[in-house]
Amino acid sequence: MVSFFRFSFIISSMNGERGHFETTGRELQFGRWVNRNGIKRFLLDLDDTICVTRPIFRGAMKEATEIIAAHSSIMTQEQWMEVLDRIDGGLFEVYGVNANRWNITIETLAKKYGLYRHIQKKAKQILQNIYTTPLKMLDGAEEGLDFIKRVGVPMGIVTHANVEWTLKKFAWLNLKRYVSWDDIFVVDENGHKSSESWAQAVRKFGLTPIECAVVGDSPRSDINPACEIGVRHCFMVDNSNRWTIHNQPVDQKAMVIKAINEIAEAALGR
Ligand SMILES: [Mg+2]
Fold first, then answer.
1. Mind listing the pLDDT tens digit for each residue in 52-62?
2. Tens of pLDDT along 27-46?
């Protein structure tokens, strides 16, 4: 069995873009690890796993609170930011990642502290700019995805956002290099990304959890739910972009990496 997999792996490498002779030892080793563990597909989260998203939110929140602070001296900009973050965190539990929750966040803020209508309007506009600002790849993400592609393991993306914004990210990041649009599973923006979402995504690809490896940055929405449904190989991208609401102790099985380009190193244990 093992030799069959090795053989088929070499054949697939020969048909790959770089050809057999350029296939590195690292790719061969990782390909063997993938086959040995019965992994048929890598399922990856998108925001702050592949692309830089959280800093775009922080930037818009800072810009909105600067305008609020300039018109209302009851708090400093930093304090307004803290309050905004807290209200948004609470609304996330109710409304998920629906972009409309920002309007409710500002209205809640206005009700509690009193804000002029034109300031509310301006703050709401700034926060909606989040969804039209082009996103960039995280450092190491491109290198890591290129590597997985060269090894020949199919990929899928499991993202919690609205479809329209996901389509924009697909274009901005040129994700068609790695996946087709049909390989993207969008979790309903009005709910939460849970073990059921991951189970649905796994089924969409016609696989079982043990046939998938999962990569994500959120303990709450990616790593723990994936471990819960029986995914054996989870890679947690640990970067400074994480939202507080996503923090949770992670399952010990999870391998912690700084970026996608560290997957092979973590899997092969060196
Ligand atoms: Mg994420």
1. 999 999 999 99
2. 999 999 999 999 999 999 99
What number is the average pLDDT over the span 243-258? 81
State the distance from the centre of ligand 1 to the C-alpha of 244, rounded, in angstroms. 12
- Give the span between the Cα atoms of 96 and 99, in whole angstroms: 9
Ligand 1 centroid, distance to 48 Cα (angstroms) = 5
Of 132, 151, 172, the one marking the end of a domain is 132
Distance 64 CA to ligand 1 centre (A): 23
227 Cα to the center of ligand 1, angstroms:
16
Residues 157 and 255 in one domain: yes
Residues 122 and 97 in one domain: yes
- The residues that bridge with 44 in the sheet, in sequence order, are 157, 215
**Residue 250 to residue 259: CA distance in whole angstroms:** 17
Domain total for the chain?
2
Residues within 5 Å of ion ligand 1 by Cβ?
A: 45, 47-48, 217
Q: In sequence order, which residues have a C-beta less than 8 Å from that of residue 70 and are 6 or more positions away?
A: none
Q: How many angstroms is it from 14 CA to the middle of ligand 1? A: 34
CA-to-CA distance for 51 and 59, rounded, in angstroms? 15
Give the whole-angstrom CA distance, residue 231 versus residue 14. 30
Q: Which stretches within the chain are classed as H helix?
A: 2-15, 25-36, 54-71, 77-95, 101-113, 117-128, 141-151, 163-172, 195-204, 224-228, 263-268
> Which two structure tokens, joined as six digits, stand for 260?
């996608």
pLDDT of 182-198, one tens digit each? Answer: 999 999 888 889 999 99
